[in-house]
Amino acid sequence: VRWERMLAIDGLPCPASGADPHWQECSAVQLFVQAARRANPAIAISAGDRESVVRICRLVEGLPLGLELAASWVRVQSCAAIADEIQHSFDVLKAHQRDRPARQQSMRSVFDHSWQLLSPAEQATLSQIAILQGEFTFPAATEVAGATWEVLSTLVDKSLLRQSSVIEADRSQETAHRTGRAEIAFALHALVRQYAFERLKSDPAQELAARQRHARYYAALLAENGSHLRSGPQQTIAMALMEREISNIRAAWEWAIAQPKVELITQLLPELAFYFDLRNPADGAQLMNRSAKVLLDASSREPAVELARARILLDQVRFALATGKRRDEAVHEMQAYLALFEQKEAHHDIARTLHYLGNAYYPDQLERATCYWQRSLELYRQTGDRWAMARILMNLGVTAGTFNQARTFYRESMRLCRALDDQVLEGHLMFHLANIEEQLGNYAAAEDLAARSVEQLRAVGDPYNLFIGLINLVAALQGQGKLDQARRSLHEAEVITQMSGTHWNRMLLALYWGRQTLTEGDVERAERLFQGSLADAESTKYVGHIQQCMISLGRICLDQGRDIEARDWFERSLQANDQQDRKSGTCRLEALVHLGEIELRAGEAAGSKAHFQAAYDQAVAIGAEVVWRRLMHRQNHAHQPQGTH
């Protein structure tokens, strides 16, 4: 009787991770430790075992019998080895003692006993829903496993299936129009899923049919959701649905790649790539790289498969570029895909490739980037892709030669964006507009735009660009001396970087932490941060960022009277700007003004005047006279170049 217990599918509470400082207080851990001491009274579960113990608890999802059976192995196995065995197969979960009922001697015997009590329809449903990952809805169970409410209810009653609480309103709104009952969610315990999936694999024909239905269902769901994902009033809801279903969508994708099923790949790729654009480009690069390798190894050399592989590789290389891949390698690969797309007359793929080639050249070759984007824009116009057109127009605003030109491009992009109700892009455009206001010294306006951008990008779930919105907010706050608020935003940006940051994130974060610490008085730390950010920027040829770091370092030297070092930094900044095929931005203007100040200190009036005049000419060229006046005011110098009033 001591061993008799219900199979508690919900399990005991488990720690969220091994980093949880209260891990020993969780019921699952306490039960495991008690059972381990019964099996081996001499055992001492130490802090060194924490990760493994927590992993065991999570692998069995707090299932009491599973915890006790796992703990029985501590006499002969380490906790780490037990966790590895469970992950490989639940067959390790069996008892050494013989004082349990036969059906509780192992988890397999528990499940075998329960399986034998099921009807054929219940067995078929249970085995096939094992394909579904995580939480799933009734429509998914129906499409994939032919499930009925009656069978699912029976499985819940027999503790083989968990019925979740009513799922969140945003998901039910999206799916209710299709089913009317999609508000109920189900889930299998991890060990039940492992057992049921073994049963499914014992019938290869049934497994293949179930996998086909699974892939088709999620491809159709993603295609239906795709228009909402990219724009419209349901965009936030669609992104939440994508987030919840990503495990099933990835499983459907990987099966489609393995076959290969080109029709399914074509359905899944655009929205899957868009998801990784927003969530984690590095993860996207890894998934696309693995997928392309599988397609390369496939025996099929059909033109459709070749085209699908090129599309996947194009996304793989652009994700990799965003996370630190060498530009020359990326461009070489994209040019090869461009040639294939041109051969196939795949016009939209040509437009996408030109788009990403522009992105590749943006860091240091603005004219070339602009040329690629303009060619891409024309093709997008021909194919009627307003969503992509709006993004290209935004990019052209980033590389525009003057602030007025930039605003014109941003306004045109915003008109398209609002016509499409694209909340994601609107968030991007607001932080670009904030950047213009910040550069011109309109810090309050910049703060308002950046704060609205942050709020919107946080709502739609776009952490990659939320980071950039936060950085623009930091710049506006620092410009107004709101250092406490700036520090809070920097900490939030730091959390995003730690979770899924790219090379670009790390560079920007170091630069703005440097500015923060410099303003707070820690000059030495600020200098180290600027140096580190500069080294990263030079390795990836981000010229605009290189200039900002050099000017920041030059200012430190200037304030400390190290004029020779300061001159070197400002001259190097100008040299970096000259390496671009377009000389633009306020960095050049600022470097020229500071060089004029150094000449003035040295008594070189002619040299000082020449630098101030060059700075003024640059300001007029880009529409930044207000910046020139502000910089000159700081120098307490009354020199007025010819042509001013």
Helix content: over 70%
Number of strands: 3
Strand order of the largest sheet: 1-3-2
Structural class: mainly alpha
Please, what is the CATH homologous superfamily of one domain? Answer: Winged helix-like DNA-binding domain superfamily/Winged helix DNA-binding domain
Low-pLDDT residue spans: 1-8, 168-182
Distance between the termini: 98 Å
Assign the CATH architecture of one domain: Orthogonal Bundle
Proportion of beta-strand residues = under 5%
- CATH third-tier fold name of one domain: Arc Repressor Mutant, subunit A
**Cα-atom Rg, whole angstroms?**
30 Å
Number of helices: 31
Describe the fold and architecture.
The protein is 73% helix and 1% strand. It is mainly alpha-helical. The protein has a three-stranded antiparallel sheet with strand order 1-3-2. α6 packs across α8 and α13 (262-279) runs parallel beside α15. The longest helix has 27 residues, at 204-230.
Can you give keywords for this protein?
Arc Repressor Mutant, subunit A; 3 strands; about 650 residues; three-stranded antiparallel sheet; about 0% strand; globular; 31 helices; about 75% helix; mainly alpha
Task: State the gist of this model.
This protein is mainly α and 645 residues long.
